[in-house]
Amino acid sequence: MSESTSTATASDPASLKGFTWWRRKITYQTGLGLTPEAKLQFETDLTIKTREEDCARCYTYRDQMMQTSPIVRFMLENAQKVGANISDANIVCDYCPELMGGGFHPELGIVLCQNRILSKTHLEDTLTHELVHAFDHNKFNVDWLDLRHHACSEIRASTLSGECRLWNEIKKTGFGGFGRKFQTCVKRRAAISVAANPNCKDKEQAERVVDEVFESCFKDTRPFDEVYK
Asked: Which UniProt keyword terms apply here (predicted)?
């Protein structure tokens, strides 16, 4: 193999597979025989390769959930019924620098943060959460800059998506406060989202707004008949 061919291969993440990739990784970790330029190139390749793998995995999970998940299919159907323009065309995977699993934009659709998705179940919960926002936006004409509107949709999304299911909370926080774990999780997640709203002053205001609307929004399970914890 010529030097020019070797250089081209080294800079092409798609070609770095199997033994070749791991040999380079070990070389990088040990630092043996690695020039500063080669180290920089490896870091670049690693970033690109990781993002490509995360993206492919995210889209595979998305497609599987849209085809087989009862809750995703149910929410997608009901969001579309109330006028949400949501389909696989605008449910996209992308890299997110923020600590978030996904996001909804009324005009652009839904983003799934490929670098934050931990499993198929995590993606299922995240996609369902964002589909609740899509449903709410069209059903209730949500003003996302109104903190009470925002808080209500976040409460509903965390309640209905499954992300606060009891076993998840027990694994995170133990058995203490068993009877209130579900509600505590919903409030916590809603307050974190509201705190990021540009019209929210601070964490304390977010928590206060969530508390103000919690009872009525927590009880509103539309389009579901009830919530399974």
From this structure: Hydrolase, Membrane, Metal-binding, Metalloprotease, Mitochondrion, Mitochondrion inner membrane, Protease
